Amino acid sequence: MKWKECAITDLRKYTGMQESLINIPEKIKVLEIRFKSVKSASSDATPVQGGGNHMEDAMLDNIVERDRLKILYQADLRLVKLIDRGLKSLSNEEKLVLNLFYINRTKHYLDELSKRLGYEQAQIYRIKNNALYKFTISMYGIMEY
Q1: Residue 140 and residue 3 in contact, taking contact as beta carbons nearer than 8 Å
Q2: DSSP for 39-101?
Q3: Gap between the Cα atoms of 61 and 57, Å rounded
Q4: What is the C-alpha to C-alpha distance for residues 96 and 104, in angstroms, rounded to an integer?
């Protein structure tokens, strides 16, 4: 059941990816400011064996890091949108169960769910399994890999 593992992994990463959508643009801004402060590359010396000087390396590192972060941001944005779409297909009860099982798991999540929903643990696990299946179908549109 690879679909279940993928869905669980995505749900566990959900909060971190949401935070990355705030943090990555800030990191890109920092790199842009640093790029402006890097002294220009020297044009009076010929690189030996294809190497550049320290300033040229710093400029290139900065450009590569900004491009990498922009790609990472787009990937995280798309996955967060997919997860949001999958969660919207669930009832409030199902969202709560998946939230406490995977997204915002607390130490005594089963006890909390039992109190809030008034169900025994066996029923909570059935809700979780059905919600995970429904979430996966809505998010990925497939049942098996």
Answers
A1: yes
A2: PPPP-SSPPSTT---HHHHHHHHHHHHHHHHHHHHHHHHHHHHHHHHHHHTS-HHHHHHHIII
A3: 6
A4: 10
**CA distances in angstroms from 16 to 22, 24, 75, 104, listed in the order given:** 10, 11, 13, 11
Give the whole-angstrom CA distance, residue 138 versus residue 96: 17
Q: What would the pLDDT profile of 73-120 be if each residue is shown by its tens digit? A: 999 999 999 999 999 999 999 999 999 999 999 899 999 999 999 999
Phi, psi of 49 (to 5 degrees): 50, 40
Q: Compute CA distances 34 → 51, 57, 127, whole Å.
A: 22, 13, 50
Structural tokens at position 133: 């299946």
CA–CA gap between residue 19 and residue 56 (Å, rounded): 32
- Torsion angles phi and psi, residue 42, rounded to 5: -80, 140
